[in-house]
């Protein structure tokens, strides 16, 4: 038997359903994709964010006093610097809410006088007219807890020549996503760097700038380990820990894709760079998390991977 209902009754039902969907969406909207793969609501954690060791997960290249693999440790980050390229091989830093504050961007780009006196020390003006940005590795916005913290990110040892569309769009999208994770109750360990020779900036292709003193990389890469805020971080990394790795071309068409399209495995970056990432993590766990490509849906405007 078929039942027919007055139009007004159907209208009430439709309005009720729409209202319910809207309520559900408002309940879901504050969630971020990462909350879908970790149990519980980390934003409700009672753990206090702290500033932790920037090299807690290991020294990827075994950096030391070598001219091409020179270890530099600062309060805000650690790095392997390459005298012959005039750029860092990699920079490693911890990111939690304890590092974030209200300090404005200092914009005090300057030579790093901590380099040996007989080395070429890259100057802020070395990038002028090159068509490449002074691309931060450890971002300014990741170090806003104090003037000293933010100012440290403007040392030229923390820069490499980055195509404008990489630095200002795709790379920045990923940097912002990392801070979104932190605002939602996570702490991160990040290692980022560059590889290869020859990139394309706003003036076209180049292999070096600054009279050959600074090498232009062909790719930019990053590894991000994501943990709920807590203590004893190294011991909390397990087979289920989320690790994001990306490999992006250093050119002006990189922004044709969202940063999430450049995700890869940590192991593939190890093969590319020759580094041993997460070397302080037990090998059995490394073998699991480094071979996995992050596939958490990422919400972004072009709708490629909306999780709603």
List descriptors:
alpha+beta, 6 helices, globular, disordered C terminus, two-stranded antiparallel sheet, eight-stranded antiparallel sheet, about 300 residues, 14 strands, single chain
Describe the 3D structure:
By secondary structure, this protein is of the alpha+beta class. Helix content is 22%, strand content 22%. The protein contains 6 helices and 14 strands. The chain has helices at 7-28, 147-152, 164-183, 233-236, 266-273, 283-289, and strands spanning 65-66, 69-73, 78-82, 87-95, 133-136, 159-162, 186-195, 199-201, 204-206, 208-209, 214-215, 219-228, 242-249, 263-264. The strands form 4 sheets. An 8-stranded antiparallel sheet has the order 1-2-3-4-7-12-13-14. β10 (208-209) and β11 (214-215) form a beta hairpin. The relative contact order is 0.15.
């Amino acid at each position: 038997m078929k039942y027919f209902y007055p139009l007004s009754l159907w209208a009430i039902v439709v309005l009720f359903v729409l209202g319910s969907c809207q309520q559900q969406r408002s309940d879901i909207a504050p969630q971020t994709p990462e909350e879908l793969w970790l149990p519980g609501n980390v934003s409700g954690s009672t753990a206090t964010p702290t500033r932790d060791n920037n090299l807690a997960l290991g020294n990827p290249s075994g950096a030391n006093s070598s001219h091409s693999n020179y270890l530099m440790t600062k309060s805000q980050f650690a790095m392997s610097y390459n005298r012959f390229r005039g750029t860092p091989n990699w920079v490693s830093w911890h990111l939690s809410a304890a590092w974030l504050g209200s300090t404005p961007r200092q914009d005090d780009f300057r030579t790093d006088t901590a380099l040996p006196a007989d080395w070429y020390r890259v100057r802020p003006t070395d990038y002028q007219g090159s068509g490449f940005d002074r691309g931060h590795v450890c971002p300014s916005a990741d170090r806003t807890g104090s003037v000293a913290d933010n100012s440290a990110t403007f040392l030229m040892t923390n820069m490499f020549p980055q195509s404008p569309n990489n630095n200002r769009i795709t790379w920045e999208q990923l940097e912002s996503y990392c801070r979104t994770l932190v605002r939602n109750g996570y702490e991160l360990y990040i290692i980022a760097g560059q590889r290869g020779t020859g990139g394309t900036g706003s003036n076209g292709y180049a292999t070096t700038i600054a009279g050959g003193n600074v090498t232009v990389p062909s790719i930019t890469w990053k590894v991000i380990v994501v943990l709920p805020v807590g203590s004893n971080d190294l011991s909390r990394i397990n087979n289920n820990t989320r690790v994001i790795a990306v490999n992006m071309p250093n050119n002006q068409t990189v922004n044709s894709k969202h940063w999430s399209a450049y995700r890869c495995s940590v192991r593939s970056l190890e093969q590319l760079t020759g580094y041993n990432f997460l070397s302080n993590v037990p090998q059995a766990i490394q073998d699991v998390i480094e071979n996995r490509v992050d596939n958490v849906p990422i919400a972004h405007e072009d709708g490629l991977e909306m999780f709603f």
